[in-house]
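Your task:
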Amino acid sequence: MRRLGLALSSGGPRGVAHVGVLQALSDAGIPIHAIAGASVGAQVGGLYAAGVPLDDIARLWRDMGFTKLARGFLPTFPWRGWSSGEEVRRALYPLVGSVTIEELPIRYAAVATDLRTGEAVAITRGPLVEAVRASVSVPGLFVPAEWEGRFLLDGGVVSPLPVEVARALGAEVVLAVDVLVPPTEKSLVRPNVFSVLFQMATIFQKRVAELEAQVYPPEILISPDFGDHAPTYSDVGSGVEAGYQAASAVIPDLKALLED
């Protein structure tokens, strides 16, 4: 059987759909050789690669809740970002401890952005918690993570759909999961400064992801349908089910590709 790699996109709370994708693959008995994730994709993928049960990964969102999430965004002093990122560490450490990426049974990379050069950085070694913390460091919200002399930010800035990283990990077939917000989904009837900035980031990330898929085409690309109730940090809704349905629909094609 050919080796399957997953490219799990950034996408904030929509990343809970990655849990459903992983559940569908597990139910179908399809082994995963490698996972490359950006931002929330790095978080979900890293926990799964470390052997954390999928139910526990989904529960992480509910357990943190909006209150704990907001507390994690208390400003740092001196002010270098809205959060030190310590809440991320506190949430992940009880699940994976001090495990390193080298110890994981599934090949794994957390994609981050080098603040100085703008390059995508695939973190493939070192403590898993620190790799995830770097990959989810949203610019302006989190203090940049320090890693091997670099300052790292959210991987979704330059590589929101890291197909080429999954390929570099040894994947022969790549299933890419895009949970990014479509720009057309947001209404801008009365734009304000926050909605405009959010829309700019949405357009930018979606366009970069589209370009990545063109330059490094995956064998299969899926985009879960969330309907009218996309997941939020306070309500994941049917996000897991949306991911499960999207992955289930391509299982026959995926099996055929893996068995070629």
Q: What stands out?
A: Helices lie at 17-27, 40-49, 54-71, 86-96, 128-135, 163-168, 193-215, 239-259.
